[in-house]
Structures are given as C-alpha cells and as structure tokens.
Amino acid sequence: MAIHTVSRSRTTVGAFIGTYVGAGLLVGGLALAGAILEYLLHGDFRDRYAELFRLIERVSGASADELRAFLATGMLMNVAAALDLQAVADREPWAGRLLGEEFAAKLRDA
C-alpha cells in the first residue's frame, strides 16, 4: 500500500468511522478495518491492472475486443484452477459445460 494513498484517504477513513458511529451501528473492529483496507487498496489495484492492460496492449498490438477475451480467458483459467474444475468435470456437469473441450485442453497444456 502506498503511503500517499493512506495520507490522502485520512478524511475518508474518518467519514467511514463517523458514519458507523453516527448511525448508532455497532461495527466490529475487523469489519471496519476490512472496509478501510478495501477502500485504500482499491485504487492501487486498479492502477496496477491498468498498467497490465496497457503493457499487453502495447506488446501484442491486439484490439480491445481481443484483449478483453484474453483477460477473460485468463480469469476463467485462474478460477478453474483454483476450484480444480478439471478434476470434477466428469461428475459435475456444470463444470464440464463451463470448461468446454477447448478450454479443458488449454488447462491440460498450461
């Protein structure tokens, strides 16, 4: 997390706390900390993803539609790997339909 993000966001952090306390809601410290952390990191993650998008765009010369399809496929591959969908595709019909034969082949080759 960048220092400038934290200092720039002090007023917003105060607004978070003021909103919760002003509304009379009892919010656990962990939930509040999670909300603040999410707010502080959101812009940094967006900036890094923008850098990634521009890098792929510059290096590949792909169109916006091709980039969108490439990034969407990458995200689906991450989800499929995290859930180990290839291992359950034969007994979980939805997983098999989601992967499709072409996509399952890409996972096997990765």
Topology record:
Elements: H1 3-8, H2 10-22, H3 29-60, H4 64-82, H5 85-88, H6 93-109
Assign an overall shape.
Answer: flat
**Low-confidence parts:** 1-10, 20-27
Radius of gyration: 21 Å
Query: What is the helical fraction, as a range of percent?
Result: over 70%
Q: Separation of termini?
A: 31 Å
Order of helices and strands: HHHHHH
> Mean pLDDT score, rounded?
74
Major sheet details: none
Count of distinct structural domains: 2
Strand content: under 5%
Q: Please state the structural category.
A: mainly alpha
**Count of individual helical segments:** 6
Total strand segments: 0
Describe the structure.
The protein is mostly helical and 110 residues long. It has 2 domains: 1-61; 63-110, no CATH class. It is built from 6 helices and no strands. Mean pLDDT is 74; it is low at 1-10 and 20-27.
What keywords describe this structure?
110 residues; mainly alpha; 2 domains; 83% helix; disordered N terminus
Brief summary:
Helices cover 83% and strands 0% of the residues. Residues 1-10 and 20-27 have low confidence and may be disordered. By secondary structure, it is an all-alpha fold.
